[in-house]
Give the backbone structure.
Amino acid sequence: MDARKSLIAIALVVVATLLISAIGLMPGAKTLSLPVALEALFVPDGRIESILVWTLRLPRSLIAATAGAGLAVSGYLLQTLTRNPLADPGITGVTAGAIAPIVTCFVLLPWVSGSYYGFVGLIGGLAAASVTFWVARGGNGRPLHLALGGISVSLFLGAVTIYVLLLAGPQSTALLFWISGGFAGRSWSHLWQMLPWVSIGIAGALALHRVILLLSLSDHAAAGMGVQLNLWKPVLLVLGIFPVAGVAPVAGPVAFVGLAAPHIARLFRPSGAALEIGLTAAIGSFIVTSADLIARTVAIPKELPVGIITALIGGPIFIYLIQRGGLGVKGKGA
């Protein structure tokens, strides 16, 4: 696909995401018609409809879109960095590494401000990823060993998280819903909390798109073209964990997006790494925004965790990609 068609594909996915977001302004405990929701959006007047749109539903849709874009690019960076189609924030242990210390701080160290949770998640994600990659190196970095290492780290940290939850007492119910992944009750403050972390990850990936393109070939090829592997690999790893560190405190773990969105984007064969990153981010936004809409509407006035919806939607899609041979990344295994 040439650059023009790639840009058109990105634009179409963005428009689809905006349409889903517009539809998402309607459902809830008080359902609004589309004309009323749009009027409240563009001509706010302080009535209950405007409050519902601007205080509850619009920020939630924007948070879902931002989280989806960040998690998708995180998965893209991890897959490219390892040249492993199985790499994503969940399978590499990054998500569990971010969630466990955040839960621990919330329950055992309540004096730690929530504004620091992004840094806590970043450190935890880096530590978990480092252990996973160390385990995978024992198997020469094969995809299977990376997956097994990540699953082992995730299971261990998941057990730690559950143990801490048992100590939480009455808070455990809310925390259990949070670790299932969701955007219930999220507001503008949560968007501003998440946005810098996701923006750094996506902007960093776009700025380093040439390095990413070379690294996707092989370590030897990249080194032969002047790429300093000892510098750029850790930088890309940190950039890949930044969005997870921003999303985890706000939405908890949202499954599948970082694994599948990059593969779906590659099916379009976009022209160049920069456009591939842009398309991956757009697809991630669309998936999570759609999943959030479904989670809010299938059981009104209750709602399901978004992580469950993304897994239910993504599982069949991912199986389809595997069966048709669409699962893969450029280059040889790490």
